[in-house]
Amino acid sequence: MTRTPATPRSPLAFVGRAGRAARALTTAASALALCVGALLAAPAPAHADDTITTQDYFSYYKLDQARAKGYTGKGVTIAMIDGPVDTSAPELAGANITDKSRCTVNSDNKSKTHGTAIASLLVSKNYGFLPDATLYSYQTTFRDQQRSADCNPETGTALDELGALINFAINDGAQIITISIAAGQIDAKFEPILNAALSRAINQGIIVVTGMGNTSTDNDGASYASRNGTVGVSAINLDGSFALDYSSFGDSVTTAAFGGPIKARDYDTGQIRDTSGTSIATPIVAASLALARQMAGRNIESAPAAAHTHRFKPPTCVEQPHGLRSRQPRCTHQYGPLSVS
Fold this sequence. Notes:
single chain, 7 helices, about 350 residues, 3-stranded antiparallel beta sheet, alpha/beta, 7-stranded parallel beta sheet
């Protein structure tokens, strides 16, 4: 991931209507015991399985209980900005997915692996957080890929850039947008469009969730989470400990979620592989917010007040003044997974 400057924002701040929505929905997601660009860490060796039937996080987040209570994402529209989704994958059979991309992106197998894994986590009937939700996918061009001429990059409004895709998702009726891509991939000339799109999302109460990255360092300067109106996500392990071996951290983190390993279909090898990253935690948080939206209905401010987000100091942290960088989280970075007492 290439580091590039990003617009700073106040630590852990929520702004405007989207901020109030995020606060309320985060609380509601906690009540459900539900809660890191491409932001996937390097995959582990492949398995021999042909079909993915479950994931470790399914029991961790008690998704069977959520489904039994009718919390399946029904009536919620969530958007993902990522690589292409292979809707023919067996894990996505019966899922309600529509590709809303506005131009042709010449994607490779790596981005297809990434996009399909994120979509499966969200809406797989077997192990998705939101098996009954509507998922809109928007393909973006990654740094090592080529956009087609119909994306019109020379006009200043490329149809596959992040700001344009956020605007399209808003126009299409998405209520929550999840982004698991690295901030360093945006062209500087499109920064104004991105900033305006995020402001629009804030004004319309649409929550944008983004991962911190996989540098194992304070990554505020190279994550979209540093921008106003976004929910920044770091990763934890199944035992609740901070995933210090890969997860980035920083003052822009809002919460954390399980970052893997999960099983993902590898389109380079045709096998199932284990992978981890903040790319995984990000849609988990977005999906949890979607479930909270379903639970609370349109009145998202009515989320249960008794629930809360546990805050904890990272298990390995250093005391240091604000602004100094380290390969360990500062002890002032106190955040944790969404949970319920």
